[in-house]
Specification:
It comes from Pseudothermotoga lettingae (strain ATCC BAA-301 / DSM 14385 / NBRC 107922 / TMO) (Thermotoga lettingae). With about 130 residues, this protein is mainly α. It has six helices and three strands, in the order H-H-E-H-H-E-E-H-H. It has one domain: Winged helix-like DNA-binding domain superfamily/Winged helix DNA-binding domain (Arc Repressor Mutant, subunit A, Orthogonal Bundle). Helix 2 packs across helix 4.
Length: about 130
Amino acid sequence: MVKVEGRLVLKNYPITAAQFDLLQRLYFRGPMKMTELSTMLGIAKSTLSGIVRRLENVGYLSRTRGKDKRVFMISATAEGKKVVESVIEKRVEFVGKVLQELGKEDSNQLLQLLQKFKEAIEKCRSS
């Protein structure tokens, strides 16, 4: 639901959900190589190239040569970072409204359950 709310904000920008996913990863992880991004996103390099090109054309990404001149580093521009921050802000506002609607007691109970859920996931991953 929170993700859906964030996706509604994307209607204000000329990008798709897949393009936003890439932009968001660069926002949080910093500049990355195309091969790293391709692996992380689980998509072919040719598909990634198209996504990067479109985001570059609207000014949300930049492509610069790395130390090895054959390698490009992809990074979010200031404008691209603003898009990510806007979507995050809307998601935070939405979650705040939902928690307010739940009330303090139910919100605290939800937080405890989510913490237990997270711990269970981590336990299952490590076994």
